[in-house]
């Protein structure tokens, strides 16, 4: 199974979003409320790619609207990146979860599910043409840069993906929220802002170099 059969041969974000709503490229759609496609300007300077939508995103149909998204917004301000220049999306477009009483707990997508959903991310990046792709978390980084890539060792580096995308990988903001205390969260937040500042510098350099 793959999303390949559902991705239209176009580079219009609205048409891609409409097509993704009926994607049946893997079985995750069976338990998800809806497809959560990317969101942002069609000519965004940077595309930020996470793992998958969470519970709140699944219900609202928009990426990064939960606690991790609010933390990302704060970090973007701190790094000097205009939120209006950012396209946010996920490698996997449906919420994978398991029940825990009345709660729905996040489950990590497996390699088969990531591979099945990959054509949507390719189509999004092709439509947006971002100057930089920022991978948030190991799942996104390894989907884009290969399973050997270690975010813990190479976060904040500028690398080129096999698709010739200019990529900076960092942690997922949800990992910061899981820090055991306030001091740990502040430390991890500052490191996250440092990684996003690399993205900001790249954008500034590319803007300065453009005629």
Quick synopsis:
The chain is 43% helix and 15% strand. By secondary structure, it is α/β, with parallel strands linked by helices. The protein has one domain: Uracil-DNA glycosylase-like domain (Uracil-DNA Glycosylase, subunit E), CATH 3.40.470.10.
Q: What report would you give on this structure?
A:
With 211 residues, this protein is of the alpha/beta class. The protein has one domain (3-209): 3-Layer(aba) Sandwich (Uracil-DNA Glycosylase, subunit E). Helix content is 43%, strand content 15%. It is built from 8 helices and 7 strands; from the N terminus they run αβααβββαβααββαα. It has a 5-stranded mixed sheet with strand order 2-1-5-7-6, sandwiched between helices. A two-stranded antiparallel ribbon has the order 3-4. Helix 3 packs across helix 8. The termini are far apart. 39% of the residues are buried. The model has no long low-confidence stretch (mean pLDDT 96).
Reconstruct the topology from this structure.
Blueprint: H1 13-20, E1 46-50, H2 55-60, H3 67-79, E2 86-90, E3 97-100, E4 103-106, H4 111-128, E5 132-136, H5 138-145, H6 151-154, E6 158-160, E7 166-170, H7 173-177, H8 182-209
Parallel strand pairs: 1-2, 1-5, 5-7
Antiparallel strand pairs: 3-4, 6-7
Helix pairs in contact: 3-8
Key traits:
alpha/beta, two-stranded antiparallel sheet, Uracil-DNA Glycosylase, subunit E, globular, 8 helices, 211 residues, single chain, five-stranded mixed beta sheet
